[in-house]
């Protein structure tokens, strides 16, 4: 069975592979390039139509005039007994047929072609104003031109293929083919531009979640190579900073707490009054708690340690432990079998910090204890279905204009300064850990009095 970290990393790689396709930047680039391609094609077809029209009209008219003139001359100067053989040869070799023009002929209109009026004008100017055109005579389709030999009138029929250019259907077919190739090219170019950005975005998001992303490929254009190389170097530097911080934290814990322990022992052994001993022990405990808050705030939460956690059981256990404190009254309403992805130790620290904050500052008015309600439900949120924890007290609440200040590190409300035994990091630690868990945190005053925190955690797969 694959470890959770490996499974999570593989899923992240799959997400990166298609993130460029889902991004808005890809579609904006694709749409822009498609529009530019369509406009360019339209301009290109228009230019071809404008510049090709004149030469095509002239060439077609010259062909018609030449064929009629040559055929007329051949028939005029040939011996009568050889004309039948000449007509057969013209029909078989050149695709030219000669028919007698009769008054009873059923004549169809000229070919329906945008160039036909201009072609007809040039041909009539060269062959005579009485030259007629038809797309079919007596039900036989073709391209017919009339001519006279003395008083006799004839039809000269050419095969349409010899004079036909590209039809509208053919133009449409070519336009569709070129359009599809252009759209595919636009999609390819857009993906080449956006895929490196998608990789970079996904890697930055992984860092924000406390993960270490895979190295970005240092290939492509020079700008992409430089950006990916700089990002990879930044990831390595951050990893080194994390290692150095872990060493520093261990040193701080040892170098500060050892003297505090020694001071506590000396206070116990010193010949002091009970009041002085209690005061000094309280100060030492307060300093130890402040150091603990600093370490908790600075301690990183590694996403690689995330495993499915039975949140229902965790909250029930925390509620039982907190209920043993004389100054607390805990009520729980927990949905069973709710599992989330996270670090159980850090989540326990988060809930304990929230309960401790409520114990200190949420004392029920008129009582010497704090009432705390813990509710767990699975709800649909803007980020999908999530496990939502609601922890509320029945105290006096917080002034609305000061709620935002609660999340800032080293900040306490004025009303709490005389009571606090910490450094103002309780809720800052909560927010920091929840951010690494990709969880949401909302704080507000409860209806009917008190303070409420809502934590929304992603459900385990």
Relevant terms:
Heat Shock Protein 90, 461 residues, alpha+beta, Beta-Lactamase, rod-shaped, four-stranded antiparallel sheet, 10 helices, Helix Hairpins
Secondary structure layout plus pairing:
Blueprint: H1 4-22, H2 24-77, H3 83-94, E1 96-100, H4 116-127, E2 133-137, E3 140-149, E4 152-158, H5 168-208, H6 222-269, H7 274-298, E5 307-310, H8 311-323, E6 328-334, E7 339-342, H9 344-361, E8 370-381, E9 384-393, H10 426-436, E10 440-445, E11 451-458
Parallel strand pairs: 6-8
Antiparallel strand pairs: 1-4, 2-3, 3-4, 5-7, 8-9, 9-11, 10-11
Q: Report the structural category.
A: alpha+beta
The CATH topology of the largest domain is given as Beta-Lactamase
The main sheet orders its strands as 6-8-9-11-10
Question: What is the CATH C-level name of the largest domain?
Answer: Alpha Beta
Number of strands: 11
Any low-confidence stretches, pLDDT <50, length ≥5? 1-13, 414-425
Count of domain modules: 3
Principal-axes shape call:
rod-shaped
Q: Determine the CATH superfamily of the largest domain.
A: Sensor histidine kinase RisS, periplasmic domain
Assembly level? single chain
Overall mean pLDDT: 78
User: How large is the radius of gyration?
Assistant: 45 Å
Major pleated sheet: 5 strands, mixed
The CATH architecture of the largest domain can be given as: 2-Layer Sandwich
Order of helices and strands: HHHEHEEEHHHEHEEHEEHEE
The level of helicity is 40-55%
The proportion of strand residues reads: 15-25%
From the N-terminal CA to the C-terminal CA, the straight-line distance is: 15 Å
Tally the helices: what do you get?
A: 10
């Amino acid at each position: 069975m694959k470890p959770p970290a490996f499974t999570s990393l593989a899923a992240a790689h799959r997400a990166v592979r298609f993130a460029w396709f889902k991004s808005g930047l890809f579609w904006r680039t694709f749409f822009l390039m498609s529009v530019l391609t369509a406009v360019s094609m339209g301009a290109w077809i228009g230019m071809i139509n404008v510049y090709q029209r004149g030469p095509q009209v002239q060439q077609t008219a010259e062909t018609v005039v030449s064929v009629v003139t040559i055929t007329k001359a051949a028939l005029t100067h040939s011996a009568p007994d050889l004309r039948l053989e000449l007509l057969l040869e013209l029909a078989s070799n050149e695709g030219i047929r000669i028919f007698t023009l009769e008054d009873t002929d059923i004549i169809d209109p000229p070919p329906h072609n945008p160039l036909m009026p201009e072609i007809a004008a040039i041909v009539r100017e060269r062959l005579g104003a009485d030259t007629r055109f038809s797309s079919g005579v007596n039900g036989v389709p073709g391209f017919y031109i009339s001519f006279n030999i003395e008083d006799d009138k004839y039809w000269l029929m050419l095969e349409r293929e010899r004079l036909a250019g590209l039809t509208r259907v053919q133009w449409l077919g070519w336009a569709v083919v070129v359009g599809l190739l252009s759209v595919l090219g636009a999609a390819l170019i857009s993906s080449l531009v956006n895929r490196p950005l998608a990789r970079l975005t996904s890697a930055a998001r992984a860092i924000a979640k406390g993960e270490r992303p895979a190295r970005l490929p240092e290939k492509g254009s020079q700008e992409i190579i430089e950006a990916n190389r700089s990002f990879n170097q930044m990831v390595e530097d951050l990893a080194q900073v994390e290692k150095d911080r872990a060493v520093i934290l261990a040193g701080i814990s040892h170098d500060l707490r050892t003297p505090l322990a020694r001071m506590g022992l000396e206070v116990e052994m010193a010949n002091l009054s009970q009041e002085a001993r209690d005061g000094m022990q309280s100060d030492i405990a307060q300093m130890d708690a402040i150091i603990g808050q600093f370490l908790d705030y600075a301690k990183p939460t590694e996403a690689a340690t995330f495993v499915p956690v039975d949140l229902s059981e965790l909250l029930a256990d925390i509620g039982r432990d907190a209920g043993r404190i004389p100054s607390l009254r805990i009520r729980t309403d927990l949905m069973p079998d709710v599992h989330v992805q996270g670090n159980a130790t850090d989540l326990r620290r988060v809930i304990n910090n929230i309960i401790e904050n409520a114990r200190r500052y949420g004392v029920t008015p008129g009582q010497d204890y704090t009432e705390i309600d813990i509710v767990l439900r699975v709800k649909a949120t803007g980020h999908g279905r999530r496990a939502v924890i609601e922890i509320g007290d029945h105290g006096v609440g917080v002034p609305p204009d000061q709620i935002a200040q609660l999340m800032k590190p080293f900040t306490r409300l004025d009303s709490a300064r005389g009571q606090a035994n910490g450094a103002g990091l309780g809720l800052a630690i909560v927010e920091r850990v929840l951010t690494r868990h990709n969880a949401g945190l909302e704080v507000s005053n409860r209806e009917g009095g008190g303070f409420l925190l809502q934590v929304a955690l992603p459900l385990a797969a």
